[in-house]
Design brief:
The chain is of the alpha+beta class. It is 51% helix and 17% strand. It has helices spanning 10-19, 40-45, 49-54, 57-79, 86-109, 116-125, 147-158, 163-170, 192-199, 232-262; strands spanning 29-33, 36-39, 133-144, 181-185, 207-211, 214-229. Helix 1 runs parallel beside helix 4 and helix 5 packs across helix 10 (232-262). The protein starts with 9 loop residues before the first helix and ends in a 7-residue tail after the last helix.
């Protein structure tokens, strides 16, 4: 499934691929579909610095696979000459304008920094909006020593392979006899590494965690309110995301206001 969180959504890229043949730029190739080449530099440019740093190797592989799939679809659309239809051309024109607008907003945002004081002040003012106690997660896991094996199995599970069966057939630790059930894990406890990984997943969503001794495929099946009080550190990343979203809205409104003041040829019919 193509994720919706991308800075430039893949459906938008699809429209741009309709519009013109991708000009190949020098760089490190990551994937190729016929004459279209995705380079590391072009791939990297579709993410903000924060988004790029948060991507795991598995997520980057999925994003590259999405690019391959969309490119295949776009090339077939070219072959069928769908880009010659008036409605498609109009949508592509609008898509190009949106990409340019996003680039302008991103340029303005690049000069904006969020300080530690701003993060903490937001937390202090809105503390009632955050949970006072941290959640605990009931984690089930599969241990594999080799990364490649873990990534292949993770893909199979996402494609429908039963998680418990995967534990019995593939896990390389004694916890396999208990179907990989680790029990409820909490922040700051002995299994806090699994708590952090579980917190970033949805219920029953499988994820991959790298550890010193190998790799874990994990999911959480239940959650409950724990006894540990939440604090600023637990919500730092979430608050930064909120403030960046607010800054983006503010930048958008300021840019539109500035440009309308300089432009007297805006008409509504």
């Amino acid at each position: 499934m193509i994720p919706s969180r991308r800075l430039i959504p893949f459906l938008l890229c699809l429209a741009l691929l309709f519009a013109c043949k991708v000009k190949q730029e020098p760089g490190t190739p990551l994937a190729q579909v016929n004459d279209d080449v995705l380079t590391l530099e072009a791939f990297r440019s579709t993410f903000s610095e924060e988004q790029w740093n948060r991507l795991s190797s598995e997520q980057r592989k999925r994003e590259i696979e999405d690019w391959v799939n969309v490119t295949l679809l776009a090339q077939e659309a070219d072959r069928l000459k769908l880009n010659e239809e008036q409605a498609i051309r109009q949508r592509m024109d609008y898509a190009v304008k949106k990409v340019k607008a996003n680039a302008l907003i991103a340029q303005r945002l690049a000069n904006i920094t969020i300080s530690e004081d701003q993060l903490f002040n937001y937390y202090r003012v809105h503390q009632a909006d955050f949970q006072t106690r941290l959640m605990e997660y009931n984690v089930q896991r599969i241990f594999l020593r080799e990364k490649n094996s873990a990534e292949i199995l993770l893909k199979r599970i996402k494609d429908g392979y039963n998680f418990s069966e995967a534990v019995l057939n593939h896990s390389q630790e004694n916890l396999r006899e208990n179907l990989g059930n680790l029990g409820f894990v909490a922040s700051g406890g002995a299994d806090s590494l699994f708590w952090k990984a579980a917190r970033d997943l949805k219920q029953n969503e499988p994820g991959l965690l790298a550890a010193n001794d190998g790799f874990y495929i994990l999911r959480w099946t239940e959650q409950r309110e724990g006894s540990q009080e939440a604090n600023f550190e637990e919500y730092r990343a979430e608050i930064r995301t909120i403030l960046l979203r607010e800054r983006r809205k503010q930048v958008y409104e300021e840019l539109v206001r500035e440009l309308k003041m300089k432009t007297d040829k805006v008409y509504y019919y």
